[in-house]
Each structure stands twice: as structure tokens, then as C-alpha cells.
Amino acid sequence: MTILKNIFLMITSSFPALNIKLRQSGMKETPGEFVKKTFFTSFYMTTGLVLFLAAIFSKIKFLVVILSIVFPILFMLMFLYFVKLPDVRIIKKRKEIDREVVFAGRFLIVEMESGVLLYNAMANVAKSYKEIGKVFKDILNSIDMGTGIEDALNEAIEFTPSPDFRRVLWQIVNALRTGSDISESLKSVVEQITREQIIEINTYAKKLNPLAMFYMIIAVILPSLGVTMMIVLSSFISIQLSLPVLVGVAVLLGILQLIFFVIIKSSRPAVSV
């Protein structure tokens, strides 16, 4: 157990930003606990996959030697894949926050202009918005535990994955420090974020046109003409198109469709203005 503990400590030290990433992703584990869980998850999945491959290719000579080489490679790939889980969650959380930041900012401005205290305004935002509401709930919990409002906001700024929402929180902190009107400070930053999101939407629209064209050519026109030509040529040169060949073509077309779907979805800006 001491050896494993030292291994976990060594792995944890090789990921110095892991603590911040875990906080930003909303995961409650410590870096040591996360590395330990990831290590054993990768080990169990690699072991199961190797046993599955051994059952399928049991008649191959030198199978033990091959699997002994494959096992550490698979384990490393599995571990590197699962250790990136916080990054995936951070990206997802940032997109969800960016969809809400303009509306939450406007909601907060209306509350402040109506004479609602900042604490109560943040409590109302926490009830009305899912992802940004979680951040404000953490801020309110810190304040209730005795943390100063500026310190609670600064902590949220440090662990918030969305740069746009971080700017909103910074404006609140700066307004509190200078004693200026919070609603007026928020108006300028919310308007700026809105303009930037509109630019992102226009950029995405321009990018979508060539993507749609390539999709029509590569995923629709070429496969249709290709399959038709393949059927015609097979009748002339007496080549039988067996079921596995047709299934393989269908799978390839499905993979092409999936690739275009992922590209289009990933390039879509996470905005809502």
C-alpha cells in the first residue's frame, strides 16, 4: 500500500493544475482521491478488455507475450483518457454558463435597479438559473459561513471556468471596492458580452455555409453516386456485392455522418442572446 501511495503522490504532483480543474469542473474529490479513482478505473477496464481480447484470439501463438506488451499501453491510454475528465466537464460547464450569463446579468441589473440588496439579488439569481445559480449558491453559502462578500466573490472568480461570467463578477467586486453603482457597472460589461456573442453567432453563420456544402458533397452526393456506380460496374465485371461489403459501406457512411455532426456541433458557439 505504501508503494501505491507513493505512486499516487508522484502522479498527482505531475498534474499541478489538477486541483483548480477539479474545482472548476464542480468535482468534489481532492487531487489524490481523483488520481486514485482514475488509476483503479483504468486498471479494471484495461484488465477486462485484455481478458476479452484473450478470449477472442486464444489460438494466436505468443498471445501472452503480445498481451503483456498491449496491457501497459492500453492502461496508459485509459488513464490519460480518464484523467482528462475534468477538462471535458469544464468545457461543458463553461458553455452552459455562457448561455446564461447575459440573461443572468440583465436579471441582476433589474434587481439592483429595483432597490434589491446585492445579497438578495444573488439569491434570486440562484433560484432562476441552473449553472450560474450554482455559483451564486456557493457564494451565498460562503457569506453565510462568515466569509466577506468580496472574498467570496474573488473565490468564485478563481474557480469559474467562464471568462465572461468572471468579468461580471469582477465588475461587482470593483463596484463594491470603489463604492460605485453596481447596476451601472454591470450594464457596460453585459452589453460588451452581448456584442461579442453576436459576433460569434455571425462568425458561426459564415462558417456553417462551407460546412453545409462539404457535407452535401462528401456525405450525400459522393456516397450516392459512388454506390450507384459500384452497383453498375459490378454488373459489367461480374463482381458480387456481398452483404458484408454493403454493411461496410453503410457503416462508413454512418461514420462520415457522425464526423460532420460532431464538427458542426463543436463549432457552434455557446451563446444565447
Write the layout of secondary structure elements.
Blueprint: H1 2-13, H2 18-25, H3 31-56, H4 63-82, H5 85-113, H6 118-128, H7 131-144, H8 149-158, H9 163-178, H10 182-236, H11 243-267
Structure characterization notes:
- By secondary structure, the chain is mainly α.
- The chain folds into three domains: 2-83, no CATH class; 93-194, Receptor-associated Protein; 203-267.
- It contains eleven helices and no strands.
- The mean pLDDT is 82.
Low-confidence stretches: none
Label the overall shape: flat
Q: What Rg do the Cα atoms give?
A: 27 Å
Number of structurally distinct domains? 3
In N-to-C order, the SSE pattern is: HHHHHHHHHHH
Largest sheet: none
Q: From the coordinates shown, what is the CATH architecture of the largest domain?
A: Up-down Bundle
* Cα separation of the termini: 54 Å
The count of DSSP E runs of length 2 or more, i.e. the number of strands, is 0
State the helical fraction.
over 70%
Secondary structure class reads mainly alpha
Q: State the name of the first-level CATH class of the largest domain.
A: Mainly Alpha
Oligomer state of the chains in this structure: single chain
Which fold does the CATH topology of the largest domain refer to? Receptor-associated Protein
Number of helices: 11
Mean pLDDT value: 82
